[in-house]
Amino acid sequence: MNEPTPPVRSISDTARWVAYFRARETQRSDALFRDPYAERLAGERGFEIANTLLEGNKHEWAWAARTFLFDKFLAREIQEGTDLVVNLAAGLDARPYRMQFPERLQWVEVDLPEILSYKEEILASEKPKCQLERISLDLSDVRARRTLLAEMDLRATKIVVLSEGLLLYFSAEEVASLAKDLAAGAHFQSWIVDLASPGQLKLMQRTTGKQLSEAGAAFKFGPSEGPHFFVPHGWEPKDVQGFLKTAAEFNRAPVELLSLLPEPKGAPGNFPWSGVCLLKKR
Hints:
- The chain has one domain (about 15-280): 3-Layer(aba) Sandwich (Rossmann fold).
- The longest helix has 20 residues, at about 60-80.
- With about 280 residues, the protein is of the alpha/beta class.
- The protein has helices spanning about 15-25, 40-50, 60-80, 95-100, 115-120, 140-155, 170-185, 200-205, 210-215, 245-250; strands at about 85-90, 105-110, 130-135, 160-165, 190-195, 235-240, 275-280.
- About 40% of the residues lie in helices and about 15% in strands.
């Protein structure tokens, strides 16, 4: 007998899964954001992944909080003069289409060829709100990555980097290398990342993480230092917001998790914490 097809076949499939949650949030009357492209981007495959992956359709509140916080931090950075956004592992992000940006804003998406080709096909008839460019690149190719970042550094005077849903799949050494590469650019000023504590990482590895590991998308990064992991590598945390606290503010947090509030100050350690961090160049 043939073995069943795994829910996630490659790391690119996780982008379809994330789009599913944006589609779910958009359907709500009290949505924290609206992404009219998410359902098309997720496609049948995204909905299938969410409903067959272990705990694949749970924690909707956390996914909504992550997107909301990235939107919030990004909007603030653009208001303060950012002229180039570099979105690393952009996946099926639709911010250049769904958010209001200055038309002159440059936006560069970087990801693997397969996911960018799929995205271009789905959004072919749509017009972005800013100057959008897509670049196919494997971010684990350090030499190619450094060449790209050096080119980006020449294009603008104030650059913000997004890496939503990326660092979790990197080792601590790989994250440190990327952080140093970004800090080396004179015009890379801000970096918005999502982060999990060691305790949260362990929980994720025991559930969804098992199946994702089989698809080459293992969860790896949950630093014991918390956001201060980035300090020796050129970046300082300026604003840190947890998913659970954010969800609770909008009456989204599951009742059974409210006992975990308030979130711990300092490095969360084994506390099951995840959130979004705004980092600034030191």
